[in-house]
């Protein structure tokens, strides 16, 4: 890749301090490092991944609003967690976590367990009980 | 307290940390040199390990390998530790910083505050170098950042103890002693090249090296019929993300390896023939980029003439062939040097 061909398709990186770095060939044939704000195919791959997560989260949000799932299910989805991963963050039992995805079991949780969940997500307990948290 | 540490942007986190740490101790190597000596070009397709419910595709060796190989070959003594107790892990880090030791750490990126939100997945093999602490705030030299970043003690603790696939368990590593600031690069370069060829060609199970690329190509042909269009596209997106993720230098490290080969040729006195291999590797990098480009057109769905999964698999299969020939020839050439 030539230095002038290094892509600068900014979508996600521009507002942060993070950059891609390419080793590209300059006019004299030497490889030199060139910083990049992103490349469109990579941005596209990220976009469809997050779109899919967003769609899934919205579907779960609707189920929570309809009283079929607990808010925990929603927070798990937006934090990209499975019961197994959440179990290792919280130290809770995987089966219990699955149980807490139902509104009745979630409503019965004590502050200690709620605190474990909130801590794992990096939010407070009130946010955990609601759907307001949008990261 | 802040260690006087030269921060600079790198293509890849581990080769970047390795380069910067060695430079701190006076061993002035470049990032591509660290990648090459550390035999950092790799491929693995592990359908039996899942990340976000999809098979893991990776273009790098396991975390820690580049650092360990480079420091060993350049005669630096290092130490590393993992922890069960989070507070102990933080205290041990503080003690090193007090002594003025830049300390590498493996962290998860999901809760890394200065990372762009869209790049935060439960990926637990990111390398950073911690270079200072003021009150409750640490200064980190993150090789994929243009400047140093600050991170609170609580956040750092959280990312050092990220959970999921390959949890880092607070792993930290540092250089204890450098025997020479001008080590002989020649044997390090040659053994790095030969090791990289072995890793790409000789691992007898089909998930790794060029065999892994061929295996991914084969399995990709069935994705659409097995998984349906949506899941197949997401799985393809994961492959592209790994290939072009921040920290690969584009094309899954292939461009950076080309830069290494060019520099190696100069270090070994020129006329080694490695320059030709640099050009070939650049072409292979371009083939990977072409694959990513065609794959991404599938996500848009608007254009008519998008490549089928079979077409993409053909491209991958060609790349596997190119890399097999490349590393076979490189091994032969390097064996004579």
Rg of chain A, rounded, reads 21 Å
Number of helices of chain B: 10
Might you state the CATH topology name of the largest domain in chain A? 434 Repressor (Amino-terminal Domain)
Number of domains of chain B: 2
Largest β sheet strand count, sense and barrel closure of chain B: 6 strands, antiparallel
Q: What is the percent of helical residues of chain B?
A: 40-55%
Low-pLDDT windows of residues of chain A: none
Strand count of chain A: 2
Shape-level CATH architecture of the largest domain in chain B? Alpha-Beta Complex
Would you tell me the structural class of the helices and strands of chain B? alpha+beta
Mean pLDDT reading of chain A = 93
Tell me which CATH architecture of the largest domain in chain A applies here. Orthogonal Bundle
Overall geometry of chain B comes to globular
Output mean pLDDT of chain B.
Answer: 94
Would you summarize the structure shown here?
The complex is a heterodimer of chains A (135) and B (337). Chain A is mostly helical and 135 residues long.
Give your account of this protein's structure.
- The complex is a heterodimer of chains A (135) and B (337).
- Chain A contains 7 helices and 2 strands.
- Chain A has 135 residues and is mainly alpha-helical.
- Chain A folds into 2 domains: 36 residues, no CATH class; 78 residues, 434 Repressor (Amino-terminal Domain), CATH 1.10.260.
- Chain A has a two-stranded antiparallel ribbon with strand order 1-2.
- The longest helix of chain A is centred in the middle third of the chain and has 26 residues.
- Chain A is elongated and about 70 Å long.
- Chain A starts with 19 loop residues before the first strand and ends in a 6-residue tail after the last helix.
- With 337 residues, chain B is an alpha+beta fold.
- Chain B has 2 domains: 166 residues, Alpha-Beta Complex (Cathepsin B, Chain A); 151 residues, no CATH class.
- In chain B, a hairpin with a 2-residue loop joins strand 1 and strand 2.
- The longest helix of chain B has 36 residues.
- The radius of gyration of chain B is 20 Å and the shape is globular.
- The chains are: A mainly alpha (135), B alpha+beta (337).
- Chains A and B meet through strand 1, strand 2, helix 1 and helix 3 of A and helix 7, helix 8 and helix 9 of B.
